[in-house]
Design brief:
The complex is a heterodimer of chains A (about 600) and B (about 290).
Chain A lengths: L4 E9 L7 E8 L2 E6 L8 E4 L3 E6 L8 E7 L3 E6 L2 H22 L16 H13 L1 H12 L5 H6 L2 H11 L17 E2 L6 E2 L4 H10 L1 H10 L6 H17 L2 H10 L1 H7 L3 H13 L6 H7 L17 H6 L6 H14 L10 H21 L3 H13 L20 H17 L10 H18 L8 H22 L7 H4 L2 H23 L6 H27 L2 H34 L10
Antiparallel strand pairs in A: 1-2, 1-7, 2-3, 3-4, 5-6, 6-7, 8-9
Helix pairs in contact in A: 2-3, 3-21, 6-7, 6-15, 7-15, 8-10, 9-10, 21-22, 21-23, 22-23
Chain B lengths: L7 E14 L2 H5 L7 H18 L4 E7 L4 E6 L8 H19 L13 H18 L2 E11 L8 H13 L4 E5 L6 H10 L3 E2 L7 H9 L3 H4 L14 E2 L6 E2 L3 E2 L6 E2 L17 H11 L2
Parallel strand pairs in B: 1-2, 1-4, 4-5, 5-6
Antiparallel strand pairs in B: 2-3, 7-8, 9-10
Classes of the chains: A alpha+beta (about 600), B alpha/beta (about 290).
Chain lengths: ~600, ~290
């Protein structure tokens, strides 16, 4: 639909109950305008779509008003249309307009941003502001990098998701489990006059029924869209339930014989049965309840006296239709304990059924995947029943460690070493090897002829060495060793100290972003890295300045502190240069992610 | 003679293994801060003073060449007079032998001498002295090293370092070259030795006597120079490059600079790293 605008007659309402003001609603790409029919009325609207966050509309129904609700950050605008078709048209238009305004709203702020600046909810924004207020260090960093344009807002917070999340977790709602009361206790309400009974079915109940009775779920998926309507389906279901509740097995069997769809509900659940069989297989294979029963006669009716088998032939015929109350309770308990396995709004019956079915299928597939379950079972039986004394000692299952022939390794190393010797070196030797050996021999013969030099060390040199050695040691001893709780930082002037700490945190921040951008796969990351590099290279001279500004006695300490920062920066620069070279070497070729 | 079982334990008797770098390319290059003869004269004086400190002190010197290493001096053998003479004699013979072993004449850089070999020899002879003699001196190793680290020797050197650590032999390092040596930094750090890179090499003797002459027992009373930082970077096993970040075999802890399907040391098969694929997916989104 490319209509530039839509004009419809509508009523503007401040609330749903409000009688409303009649007028004309005009919508364009950017805004919507409402003009009341009565020109004297004060209700005039002129709102831009980019302020609108979403829209809701009322359900369609013959006797209901056609409402459209445009929601804003605070408050909303409700319009009532004359017909539903008008409403639909406007709703579609609004949806497009909102999407459109969101699109143009984003990139204006920053073109290079990875995600269009996320639409932050006010709560999110508040949280960030609060964090910044609480932590002055964070605020400083934020001011330096985000407002200084080195990092974007999103990037800055992306590394601090945890900080934001801490507050979020508090708000996460606990998921509501399934109700523990059983549906099948739902008593039909009968009006007493006619023979009709009515069951009330809520989505919650449907979810529960599907979870408890896979056969019903399967039947729903099979039948509902094609064979019967949803209403018919549930009527049949409750009819089956009703038959059960009467406990008239014969009648149930008779009904099932007539109606095969009804039979699905009346028969025992085949899917459930297979699941149970699977579970039984997992039970300790040596467990034999029947055998145990013989050991203890008290719980047998008749106290162990042989009772007559009352099962007659008729019963056997109806066996599939029998369902004990205990079975139902057990099944229900299992489902409730399992909890809500799917995370679907319980609105649409079909999606619920499908989601449940697929989650079950996954589980089953997992179990079925091990083909050798039978073998495993046999193994378990032998394991359980074996007599330890007769078994060979069992070694714990370990993967064999294979060390290859070490000669391979050392040989390759030797070759490597030799290669290295002949390899290129940046430091050029002035002489060839033989000349070098010659000169070395000359040195040796020189000392043989001349003897040890006398004096070995000139006194002034020795003094210099002694001074440099002891000064270094004593300065670190007297300034480090005096008080273990006192750090070097405290001995420095507070300005220097603060400056150092600030640089340290900002270098950390920059480096974190820098290294996290590798490997560079997009041009966005590329620009980000070069931006970060520039920022880092600005810090470099500042560190030098600090080093030079302090007094000579503590300069050594400061340089000790600054050294790791410089090293970290150097490593980053080196990596950047290397990557740059690689990039230029194979321009056009796509980096494969490995650095 | 004292029987072998009752060894003499003394806390001030030292067994000093001195490893001397005799890389001819280093000593003839511009990187060498002083001539080899001056260096030798200062070191020999230092060895003499060690022997003077305690009558029972023992010094062994191992020459670390480009292609081989060998013992060139042992104070427990030979006459007590003319020590220097015999040492220099041996050294000259060693240099000749080392040259014979040298195959190619065209080496561009200054190369790296076989530090791993001489470290192993030093550790071996320490063990031999422990097991044979009647004395049980306090051993230590002093590396006088000038040429740069050979990343190819990384594993061998690290193995020597760990065995030194196990037998509680500190490795002291005195770096003569212009660059810090990451291997020796690690060696001294791990074994609890002293790492020193002298600034004024004219006064090398002063450095040696001040820092490295004291025996291990006295060392605990002294405040010796501490290094500013230690370069802990490792070499990868596949290309022998020094790397900042790499992959490690979860079974045998071998280090690789890139992802392999199989560990070349122990043969374990690796899975595809998970993080790489997920981070790639993440990166593709914007």
């Amino acid at each position: 639909m490319t209509d530039a605008q839509v004009v419809k007659r509508a009523k503007y309402k401040s609330t749903v109950k409000d009688a409303g003001v009649r007028g004309i609603l005009k919508m364009t790409r950017e805004r919507f305008v409402f003009m009341p029919n009565d020109p004297s009325s004060s209700v005039k609207l002129n709102v831009e779509f980019r302020l609108i966050k979403g829209h809701k509309s009322s359900k369609e129904g013959s006797n209901r008003p056609a409402l459209l609700n445009l929601t804003q950050d605070q408050g909303n605008y409700i319009f009532e249309f004359e017909s539903f078709s008008d409403r639909e048209l406007c709703r579609d238009f609004v949806a497009k307009a909102i999407a459109f305004s969101a699109e143009i709203g984003g990139p204006t702020s920053e073109k290079a941003a990875p995600l269009k600046d996320e639409q932050l909810s006010s709560a999110e924004m508040e949280r960030r502001i609060k964090l910044l207020q609480e932590d002055s260090e964070l605020q400083k960093l934020h001011k330096q990098f985000v407002i200084g344009g080195v990092l974007s807002e999103t990037e800055f917070w992306a590394t601090r998701k945890k900080l934001l999340d801490v507050n979020v977790t508090r708000k996460v709602k606990q998921r509501v489990g399934l109700k523990s009361d059983m549906i099948f206790n739902v008593k039909p309400s009968s009006d007493g006059q006619s023979n009709r009974v009515t069951f009330n079915l809520t989505p919650e109940m449907i979810h529960q029924i599907f979870a408890e009775k896979p056969a019903v779920r399967q039947a729903y998926l099979n039948f509902v869209p094609n064979k019967m309507t949803e209403k018919d389906f549930w009527t049949k279901y409750w009819r089956a339930q009703y038959l059960h509740s009467t406990k008239n097995i014969v009648a149930a069997a008779a009904e099932a014989a007539e109606d095969e769809e009804l039979a699905v509900f009346l028969r025992q659940d085949a899917i459930l049965a297979s699941e149970i069989r699977q579970k039984i297989r997992k039970v300790d294979p040596t467990l034999d309840m029947e055998a145990d029963e013989g050991d203890d006669y008290t719980h047998i009716s008749g106290h162990g006296l042989a009772t007559e088998d009352i099962k007659d032939e008729l019963e056997a015929q109806y066996e599939p239709y029998k369902r004990s109350f205990l079975q139902d309770i057990n099944r229900h308990a299992a489902v409730v304990l399992e909890g809500r396995t799917i995370d679907v709004e319980t609105g649409d019956t079909r999606t619920v059924a499908e989601a449940l079915a697929s989650s079950k299928r996954l589980e089953l597939a997992k179990e079925a995947s091990d083909v050798n379950t039978h073998q495993e079972r046999l193994d378990r039986i032998t394991q359980m029943t074996e007599i330890e004394d007769l078994q060979a000692p069992r070694e714990p299952p370990v993967a064999p460690l294979c060390i290859k022939d070490p000669r391979d390794y050392f040989d390759s190393q030797q070759v490597k070493t030799l290669n290295q010797l002949s390899g290129t070196r940046q430091m050029k030797s002035r002489l060839s090897t033989s000349e070098a050996y010659d000169s070395l021999r000359a040195y040796i013969s020189e000392i043989r002829s001349v003897g040890l030099s006398d004096p070995i060390v000139r006194p002034e040199v020795a003094f210099k060495v002694f001074n440099s050695l002891t000064q270094n040691i004593s300065s670190s001893k007297y300034q480090l060793g005096k008080n273990p709780h006192e750090s070097i930082l405290d001995t420095l002037p507070s300005v220097t100290k603060e400056e150092l700490l600030l640089h340290w945190t900002s270098i950390q921040e920059l480096l974190k972003h820098f290294w996290s951008s590798y490997p560079i796969t997009t041009s966005y990351l590329y620009t980000k890295v070069s931006r970060l590099r520039d920022a880092m290279s600005q810090i470099y001279p500042k560190l030098q300045e600090i080093k030079e500004s302090v007094q000579s006695d503590s300069r050594h300490q400061v340089s000790l502190l600054v050294q790791p920062m410089l090293q970290a920066l150097d490593a980053a620069f080196a990596h950047y240069e290397l990557d740059q070279q690689k990039r230029s070497a194979k321009s056009g070729e796509k980096p494969n992610g490995y650095v | 003679m004292t029987p072998v079982s009752s060894k003499q334990y003394a806390d001030d008797v030292s067994l000093l293994m001195v490893l001397i770098d005799t890389n001819p390319l280093f000593w003839s290059s511009s990187a060498a801060p002083l001539s080899f003869s001056k260096f030798l004269s200062q070191v020999l004086s230092f060895l003499n003073s060690i022997l003077l400190l305690n009558q029972l002190n023992q010094v062994m010197v191992i020459a670390t060449g480009l292609n081989s290493c060998d013992y060139i001096y042992d104070s427990s053998k030979g006459p007590t007079s003319q020590r220097v003479e015999s040492l220099l004699q041996k050294l000259e013979e060693f240099v000749v032998k080392d040259e014979e072993l040298n195959k190619d004449d065209s080496v561009d850089g200054i190369g790296s001498s076989l530090l791993s070999g001489s470290l192993s020899m030093a550790l071996c002879s320490i063990q031999r002295i422990f097991r044979s003699g009647s004395l049980h001196p306090q051993p230590r190793i002093l590396c006088m090293h000038g040429s740069q680290d050979g990343p190819g020797q990384y594993v061998a050197i690290m193995n020597s370092i760990f065995s030194a650590q196990r037998s509680m032999v500190p490795i002291d390092s005195c770096v003569i070259g212009s660059q810090h040596s990451a291997f020796l930094q690690q060696a001294s750090y791990i074994t609890g030795g002293v790492y020193l890179k002298p600034q004024h090499l004219d006064g090398l003797f002063q450095y040696l006597t001040t820092v490295f002459a004291t025996d291990l027992h006295s060392r605990s009373f002294l405040q010796l120079p501490k290094p500013v930082g230690v370069d802990f970077r490792a070499s990868c096993f596949c290309h022998k490059n020094t790397i900042d970040m790499g992959y490690i075999c979860s079974v045998c802890l071998s280090i690789f600079c890139k992802h392999h399907k199989k560990c070349s040391t122990c043969g374990s098969a690796f899975g595809q790293p998970q993080t790489v694929s997920t981070s790639n997916q993440k990166r593709k989104a914007p």
